[in-house]
Amino acid sequence: MKGPLLRAALAAGLLAGQVLGLDVLETTGFSSCNTNASVSVQKVDIKYNNDNKTVTFDVAGTSNKIQNVTAILNVTAYGQNIYSNSFDPCDQKTFVTQLCPVPVGTFSAKGVQKIPDEYAKLVPAIAFQIPDIAAMATLQLRSKESGEKVACIQSQVTNGKTTSVPAVSYVAAGVAGAALVLTGVSAVGAAFAGGSAAAGGGSAASAAGTGTPSPGFTEVFGWFQGMAMNGMLSVNYPNVYRSFAKNFGFSTGLVPFRSVQQSIDGFRAATGGNLTNNSVASLQNATLVFPDGSSQTTGQGLLKRGVDEFLRLAARQIETSVNGTAAQTAEQGGAEGTVRVAVSGIQGYVEQLSIPSGNTFMTVLLVVAIVIAAIVVGILLVKLILEFWALFGSFPKSLAGFRKHYWGSIARTVTSLILLLYGVWVLYCMFQFTRGDSWAAKALAGVTLGLFTAVLAFFCWKIWSTARRLKELEGDISGLYEDKTIWVQYKLFYESYRRDYWWIFVPAIVYMFAKSCVLAAGDGHGMVQTIGQLVIEGVMLVLLLWSRPYERRSGNVINIAIQVVRVLSVACILVFVEEFGIAQTTQTVTGVVLIAVQSALTGVLAILIAWNAIIACCKQNPHRKRRKEMGEPPSPFPSTPSPDPNQPSQKNTNPATTSPPSTPATPSSSAKPPPPPPRSPPPSPFPKPAFPPPPPPQQPYYRQTKPAPPRRNSTATPTATAGTPTPCSPRLPLRLAPRAATRSGR
Asked: Between vectors from CA 138 to CA 136 and to CA 140, what angle results, nearest 5°?
C-alpha cells in the first residue's frame, strides 16, 4: 500500500508544479551531443526548485565498461551561462551509488543536490516568470582517468509557463466566428433592404454605399493570418514569440489531425514522396532545433507530459538497480532520446504544429475542400427547407430571390472564400513548388493556384470593363452601386469602399500576392524576407492613408490601425535578423513587446465586435429607419375627399347647361360670395419621399373667368362667379351666350 501512495503523491506533486506554475526549472526531452560515447543515455530528467535551492536529477543509460566519472552540469539562458557546477559521484557530499563507478550494462541514477547560495543567486528571478524561457541544460560525464567525454546530453529547460496555449486559439477562433456572424447578419439585412427598395420602385442605391460594419470577418481573419505569417520568417525568433505566433496557425488552414497526416503520407509515398525524414512518424521522434538554439519536442504539451509522467511513475518502482530486469529496461527504453533536426522559416512553423513540411499544402487543400463542401451543403439545405416551406405555406418575398438563384449564392460565397484565402494559398503553393517532393501535390498546387488566380483576374476585368462602359455612357460609375444587377454580381469586391475608390480591391489583391511571394521565395533568407515585407506593408499603409477608401469612418480608422501595427511588427522582426547580431535578451524583450502590441489590437477588435453586436441588437435597423424616413410610395390614384354636408353642392355649375333663373339676377356686387374651397386632407406624418413620386393621372384643364359686367337696361345672365373653375369644353357657348341674351333684350 505504501508504494502506490508514494507514487501517486509524487505524480500529484509533479502535476501541481506544472499546473500551478511554481518557481521550478525542468528539462523537457533531450538529445545527445557526443557521437562516439562509451556511455549511452536513454533517459534524463533534471529539475531545479528555487524554493529549497535543490537540483533533482534522474539519469538512465548503458555503458560498455566500468569507469569512474565526473559529472558536469551547465545551464545557459538567453545565450549566457547562468549556472555551471561539477561534482564527483563518489564524493561523500554528492554520493550517487549507481555512478560510483559507472557499471557495465544498464544503469540508472537519481539524486538530489543542494545548490549553494552563491550559485542560486546567479539564476535571475525573471527566469521563473517569462513564458517559454530560452534556456538549455547540458550534462557531461568525463572519465577520471583520461578526461575524455564519455557522455553528453542536452535538454531544453522550461519553467512551466508558455504562450502556446490552446485556449488562445479557441478564443481567436471565437472572435473570428463572432465577426463572421455579425458580418453575415449585416449582409442579409442589407440584401433584404435592397430587395424592398427594388420592390418599391427604388434602386440598389438604398442598400449600397453603406458598407459592412467594422471590424468585419475579412478584417479580423486577415489580421490573424498576418500574425501567423509573421511567425514564418527565417529569423531568430525568441521562444516566447514563436510560441505565441503558433496559436494563429488555424487561420492559414494548418489544422493538424494525426489520421489525416498519415493519409497524406500514404498519398505522398504513392506519388514519389520521400518519407524517410519527412513524415508523421519521423516528426514524432524528432527534437526541433530553432536558429536561436532553443528546441522543442513535437507532440508533447505540458498536459501531455504531465499525464505521461503520472503513468510512468505509477508503473515503475522508485528504487533502481544496476543491470535491471527486462521489464525495467523496456520501461527505460520508452524515454529514449530523439533526433535533433534544425528547422527555421515556414518548415519550423508548420512542424511545431506536428505537421510535416511535405504535408503542408495537402493539409491546407483538404481543409479548404471541407469548408467549400460545408458551404455547398449548407446552402442546399436552406434551399430544401424553402421548398418544403413553399409546399405547406408562404414564406417572405425577400427569400424568393435566394430560392430561385441559390446557385448564384453558392458561387458568390466560394468566390468570397477564394478572395479571403488567396494570400495564404499563394504562399503554400509556392512552398510546395520549392520544397515539395510529390509530383501529384505539385500538380494540384499548380492547378488550384491557376484556377484561383483566373477567378480573381476575371472579376477584376469584368468590374473594370463595366466601370469604363458606365463612365462612357453615363459619365460616372454610379451604376456599380445603383444598378441592382451589377451590385448583386460584383459587390463583394467593392461594397466597403467609397464610390471614388471602388478600384482599391485590385491593389489589395496585388498586396496579398506580393507578400506571399516574398515570404515563400525568400524562405531561408531572413533579411531579404523582412526587408521585402517591410516595403510591401509600408506601401499599403501609404495607400490607405492617402485614399481612406472605406465608406464608413470606422472602417478607415480600424484598417489603418491594423496596417500601422503590421508595419511596426515587421520593423520589430528586424531585431530578430541573425545578420544584425543583436543579443538574445534584447530579442526577448522585443518579442514580449510585440506580443503585447498584437494582443492589445486583438483585444480592441474583439471589444468592437461585441459593441457592434450590442448596437445591432438594441439599435433600430438603419435600413428600416431609412425606409421610414423615405415614407411609403404615394398611390398613383389621388384620393377624393368626402363631401361636406354643410357646403352646397358643386355639381352642374356650367352656365351653358344651367337653366336661367325665374327671377332677375342681382348685380354682381350683391352676388353671393363663392363657397370656401374643400378642406384638404390632413398632412401625412411621413416626410416627403426622396424619390420622385409617380405623376398623377391627367386632370381636365380649368381656367378662371371674370364675371361679365352688367349692361344697362338689360337683364344680366348668370355668369360664372369669380374664382369658379369652368371646363374648357364649353368655351364657344360661353362666348355666345351673352351676345344672344343682349340681342334678345333689344
From this structure: 175
Sign of the C-alpha dihedral, residues 39, 40, 43, 44?
positive
Other CB atoms within 10 Å distance of the CB of residue 216: 23
**Separation of alpha carbons 264 and 572, rounded Å:** 36
102: which strand partners? 67
Q: Which residue, 550, 524, 522, is CA-closest to 534?
A: 522
| pLDDT above 70 as % of the chain | 68
Which grid coordinates are listed for 663? 327671377
Q: What is the 3-state secondary structure (H, E, C) of 629-670?
A: HHCCCCCCCCCCCCCCCCCCCCCCCCCCCCCCCCCCCCCHHH
d(CA 63, CA 72): 18
Q: What is the DSSP letter of 219?
A: H
The answer to whether 30 and 41 have CB atoms below 8 angstroms apart is yes
pTM: 0.70
- Which residues touch 484 (CB under 8 Å, ≥6 apart)? 194, 198, 203, 204
Asked if the peptide bond before residue 101 counts as cis, ω within 30 degrees of 0, the response is yes
As a whole number of angstroms, the distance between CA 349 and CA 234 comes to 10
Q: How far apart are CA 242 and CA 260, in angstroms?
A: 25
Lowest mean pLDDT among 151-155, 214-218, 679-683: 679-683
* pLDDT of 745 over the 70 cut: no
Residues 628-660 have pLDDT tens digits of 565 544 444 444 444 444 444 444 444 444 444
For residue 282 the three cell numbers come to 519521423
